[in-house]
Every structure is written in structure tokens, then in C-alpha cells.
Amino acid sequence: MKNFKCLLVLTMICLFPKNGICIEFYETLLTGQAEKALQLLKENSSIAYSLYDQNLTTLHLAAQHGEIEVIKELLAIDPKFIKMRDSTYDTAYDLAVFFESSEVASYLLDVDPSLAYPSEKQKHPSVNFAAKWNNVELLSKIAEIDINILKIDDIRGWSPIHHAVANKSRQAAHFILRHLPFEAHVTTKKNETPLHLAAIENDFEIARSLIEVTKDDPTYLGISDTKNETVLHKAARIGNIQLIKLILRYNSKIKDLRNIDGLTASEIARKKQDFRAAAVIENRSYLFSLCQSKFAELF
Q1: 211 burial via Cβ count (<10 Å: 0-12, 13-18, 19+)
Q2: What is the pTM for the complete model shown?
């Protein structure tokens, strides 16, 4: 994805000013010649006001490529650059987070803490990428500005905790849960809890943390997604015996719940011929579960 974005940037046409200096500046910046780009900028400050397609400013591109000295010079020329957004409503700070330029993102937040708040028009708030990339340092800085930013979701209803769990960014997930334990209950537009995603990703460590945080809520493990599947259904699909046992220790009643196809978790396991998982769910011996399935096949 990041390589694709870089390719787009490299093939864009400089709109203003339309002269050789502008083109040379962007070529040097995009090819990693930061010192030369900085020199050109100091010699001709009008370069700072040039735009690429999609309203990408010089500050956006410098942030994307992690060129902090160029960024400082651009902001010295015009501090208003820091607030400018591209066609997807991203600021230079947002691109720095997306392209994992952590030093730049941190610097821009120091200059203007309000950048941590996304635009209402943004489909993918940058705080979610900070969680996705496991950037605990940046999440900590954002939390100091406003802890509630860590609750902001994207177009799919995924909040930072969902992105951290789905990408196995365990440090980020633990950080969020430590400061906002109720985020374990937050569901996506498909009604998936972070625990659903942990089971799908076969991440027992995060799943255990989520169950521990929610252990006082007997209804948590029974939450079903839009396919009417609980976390036990997901664990049965993966065949994670350790997770299945942990789930049933806290709520054994959900083993009887059926998904949209009318299947219980044990029936899903049997369908996958995972008779060990089925036996654990049914609280029967593996041999009994295997024989029962083989007998059923005869009829």
C-alpha cells in the first residue's frame, strides 16, 4: 500500500509554480536528497507554495518522506502549512503517521497538538494507523492530548483497539486496554468485538488479556457478530484448543449458540474434522467425539 502511494506521488505533476526549480526540488526530495532540497527551498521560498495533485503540499511530501529539517524550513516560511489538508482530508501529520515517520509525527504534534483530532470527513483517522503500526510512543503522546482520541473509529467502525488486535500489535493493544479498558467492549459495524478479531488472528495472548479485562461481564463472551458468531465459533474455526478452554471456563453456556447457518461451535469444528476441538467444546473425550462422527457418516 505504501509503495503504491509513493508511486502515485512520483508520477504526479507539479501544478504551481510551474518552473524548473519546483520540479528539481521535488525530484531531490523524492529521491532522498534532503540537503539539496533544503538548499533549493532556502534559495527560492516560493517553492513551498507549490502543489501536487490531490492538494498535496510540500509539507505533506516532506512529512511522508520523514524529512524533518525540510519540514522545519517549510513551517518557518509559512506556519499555516501545518493545517492544510489534501483531497482525503489528511494533514502532513496524518501522512507522517501513515508512512511511519514517527519522528516527524511527534514533532508536528509538539508544534500543534490539535492535529491529533481528525477531520470528521476523514475515512481513516491517523490514530488508527498509530495503533496498527504498534507505535506506543505516539499513542502515549496522543493520550496526553486527549485520551478520548483513542476511541475514534474509522469508516468500518474500527477503533484503534481493533486495528491493534487485528495486526497483532500487542504493545499498542495493551496500552489502550490499560488506559481504556471498556474499549474491549467496542464493536465494529459488523458487531465484532476486539476479542472476535483476536480469535480470528489466533492470538491467544491478546485474547486472554481481553477476557481478563471483561471477566466481570457475563454477557461479553456471548456477543455475536453479524453472522451470529460468538468468539467461540471463531476459535472453533481456528482450532485453538487453548482459547476454547479459556472461553468455556468463563462462559460455557455459549457453546449451544448457533450462527446464521444454524451451526454451533462444536458443529463447526466437526465440519472441519477437528474432533479434538469438538470434544473440548462438548466436554467429551476425543475418542468418543471421533467415533460419534464416524458413526454419523455411516448414515
Answers
A1: buried
A2: 0.86
Q: pLDDT value at position 289?
A: 45
Which single residue is written with the C-alpha cell 451451526?
263
pLDDT at 29: 85
- Contact between 9 and 40 (Cβ < 8 Å): no
- The yes-or-no verdict on residue 286 having pLDDT over 70 is no
Cis peptide before 17 (omega within 30 of 0): yes
Q: What is the dihedral of CA 87, 138, 30, 6, to 10 degrees?
A: -60
Q: Residue 189: which of 159, 219, 148 has the closest Cα?
A: 159
Residue type, 88: T
Alpha carbon distances (Å) from 297 to 271, 275, 277, 279, 293 = 12, 14, 18, 17, 6
Dist. CA 70–CA 66, nearest whole Å:
9
SS3 31: coil
Alpha carbon distance 240, 273 (integer Å): 14
Mention every residue, 6+ apart, whose C-beta is less than 8 A from residue 295: none
Quote the CA–CA distance of 184 and 173 in Å, as a whole number: 10
What grid cell was written down for 36?
539539496
Per-residue model confidence (pLDDT) at position 284: 76
Alpha-carbon distance values, 116 to 166, 178, 237 (Å): 22, 20, 38
Q: How far apart are CA 18 and CA 229, in angstroms?
A: 57
For the residues of 212-236, what is the DSSP string, one character each?
HHTTT-TTGGG---TTS--HHHHHH
Look at residue 24 and tell me whether its pLDDT is greater than 70. Answer: yes
pLDDT per residue as tens digits for the range 202-255: 999 999 999 999 999 989 999 999 999 999 999 999 999 999 999 999 999 999
Whether residue 59 contacts residue 68, with contact meaning beta carbons closer than 8 Å, is answered with no
Q: Taking the CB of residue 198, how many other CB atoms lie within 10 A of it?
A: 26
